[in-house]
Design goal:
In chain A, about 40% of the residues lie in helices and about 15% in strands. Chain A contains 5 helices and 5 strands. Chain A has a 5-stranded parallel beta sheet, sandwiched between helices. Chain B is an alpha/beta fold. Chain B contains 11 helices and 12 strands. Classes of the chains: A alpha/beta (about 140), B alpha/beta (about 400).
Chain lengths: ~140, ~400
């Protein structure tokens, strides 16, 4: 895939910075856009207001614990919207609660990835997630923008 | 049928309930003050066929200074209706009854979930029967021709009930505070994970990128910060595991402890091999238990025996024997042993008896064992002395074993 676009939804600026950095340096030349809460995420995906010219992402990386609209709600909005439903959503969160894992999959998450607690694993998780979803996996064609 | 004595009786026997008892209205009955321990009138329920006996019993109480009001029940249905409606301090029951006997009231009260002392007030009650009645839950028995004993018997029954109630309250309080603590530990450790992950990850990033580029002190401080963050991550992780034990139900099934031990030894294979430990074991029973939790118990105990070894190569013996209603399991080692004043401390969460440099670990293993065993209705303790090795023993109830024998 050429110039794969990732939308990262996370209220933690450190994780956005570091994840973007890891992805930018990896071979896939992934491009990361980010928003910090659930309401912004939906505006971005529906390209409302200042996001009118934003590229539709090939992959959404979504935290669960978000201000204004939490990750589960964002997920259900995406999966209920015919124009967004086919975009794979990777849940990327600190929570290791079984209830969060199963709820996410039930609501249509494509993958649940826990943010690892140490640096090397964090880097490996981010890289392999991007390589798998944007390298190996076949994704639906991006719609004309 | 309701009777009440509110004034001192005439010092005479009466053949009916006329002289000393008067009927009370429903209203009075409902507004009768609830009797607190040792204050207000004593609420008595008489289970008596003979009204004269009821009067005599009440007189004995009043002569001893009790202000007593009483209802009378003559059938089981009446009895049940009254104990549901009113709260009594004591029940004075005849043993011999045409249709039922006083001991049935003990059973009825138990079914109603009420703790009201029942004192049997009866004619000739054989010694054996009396003992039987008390075994089955009567508070005491008083012979009809020794009614002078009744007041003291009532006082004692009231004291005992007050103690039982205090005890019950204390236990409920303890259970509630344990639940709160578990809830707190769970929430706290959950919410701590995110900020902790940040500290750990970015201190590591700092170390990776700037190690050797600042001065020697900076490197040292980064190292301290990383070490602290990692340790806290482990603590939070363990605390979560510990609090989950109380939150998740047990998967109780028939568990062959021989199989459980083999699974444990597979998990510990590397540790056993590297330490040159020898694990000996006898035939173990089949019990009703959550086998994955039993594996955890044996694994913690055997791993500890290896970790806290003495000079000689570790020798660990695992066995079980039936004692009364329990299986008593033993994990005995030839390790360094534990000082007598520390024997209870070893089961306290996060309590460590050694420095982290000597022996790594959080001090959570034995508290997990204790929690698991207690959840299975057992106890765990240790027998040891410095240089004598340690023997950890725990019990599992025999009645929960399936075959009642060795597996």
């Amino acid at each position: 895939m050429k110039n794969p676009e990732i939308l990262m939804v996370d209220d933690n600026p450190a994780d956005i910075d570091f994840t973007s950095e890891v992805l930018a340096q990896s071979e896939g030349h992934f491009h990361v856009n980010s928003v910090n809460d659930g309401v912004e995420a939906i505006s971005y995906l529906r390209r409302e207001g200042k996001y009118a010219r934003a590229p539709l992402p090939d992959l959404v990386v979504l935290d669960l614990n978000l201000p204004r609209k939490d990750g589960c709600e964002v997920l259900s909005n995406i999966k209920a919207d015919p124009s967004l439903a086919k975009i794979p959503v990777v849940i990327f969160t600190s929570s290791e609660a079984n209830s969060d894992v199963s709820r996410s999959y039930k609501m249509g998450a494509n993958c649940y990835l826990r943010k690892p607690g140490n640096l090397a694993e964090f880097v490996a998780a981010v890289q392999s997630m991007a390589e798998f979803w944007l390298g190996f996996a076949s994704l639906p064609k991006r719609e004309r923008q | 049928m309701s009777v009440s004595c509110t004034s001192l009786p005439q010092p005479a026997r009466s053949n009916g309930r006329s002289a000393t008892t008067t009927l009370v209205t429903e209203e009075e009955e409902r507004t009768a003050p609830a009797v607190a321990q040792g204050s207000g009138p004593l609420r008595v329920l008489l289970v008596q066929a003979e009204p004269a006996d009821a009067d005599l019993a009440l007189c004995a109480l009043r002569e001893a200074g009790f202000e007593a009001s009483a209802d009378v029940a003559q059938t089981a249905a009446e009895f049940t209706r009254l104990v549901r409606k009113n709260s009594y301090d004591v029940i004075l029951a005849d043993y011999e009854f045409p249709n039922w006997n006083g001991m049935e009231s003990v059973e009825l009260l138990r079914r109603e979930g009420q703790d009201v002392p029942v004192i049997l007030v009866s004619g000739a009650l054989g010694e054996l029967t009396a003992v039987e009645c008390i075994k089955e839950g009567a508070a005491d028995y008083v012979l009809k021709d020794h009614l002078a004993r009744l007041p003291e018997s009532v006082r004692r029954a009231l004291r005992e009930r007050a103690l039982r109630q205090e005890n019950r309250q204390a236990q409920e309080e303890l259970a509630r505070s344990n639940r709160d603590l578990e809830q707190f530990a769970y929430v706290a450790s959950h919410d701590l994970q995110e900020p902790l992950r940040m500290v750990a990850t970015y201190t590591e990033l700092l170390a990776e990128r700037y190690q050797g580029k600042l001065d020697a002190n900076a490197d040292k401080y980064i190292h301290y910060a990383m070490d602290g963050a990692r340790r806290m991550q482990k603590l939070v992780h363990d605390l979560l595991a510990f609090s989950r034990l109380g939150r998740q139900g047990l998967a109780i099934e028939s568990a062959d402890c021989n199989v459980v031990l083999q699974a444990t030894l597979v998990n510990l294979e590397a540790t056993v091999r590297e330490s040159g430990a020898v694990v000996e074991y006898a035939q173990l029973p089949v019990v009703m238990a959550d086998s994955s939790q039993l594996i955890q118990v044996l694994q913690n105990l055997i791993a500890n025996a290896i970790k806290f070894r003495g000079v000689a190569p570790p020798l660990i013996r695992v066995s079980a024997e039936a004692q009364a209603k329990d299986w008593v399991f033993s994990v005995a080692d030839n390790g360094m042993g534990i000082a007598p004043d520390q024997l209870d401390n070893v089961f306290v969460i996060f309590r460590r008896l050694h420095t982290r440099a000597e022996y790594p670990g959080n001090g959570i293993g034995l508290s997990i064992c204790k929690k698991i065993i207690e959840q299975h209705g057992g106890r765990i303790w240790v027998e040891s002395g410095p240089g004598r090795g340690s023997t950890f023993r725990f019990t599992l109830p025999v009645q929960s074993t399936t075959k009642g024998g060795y597996g």
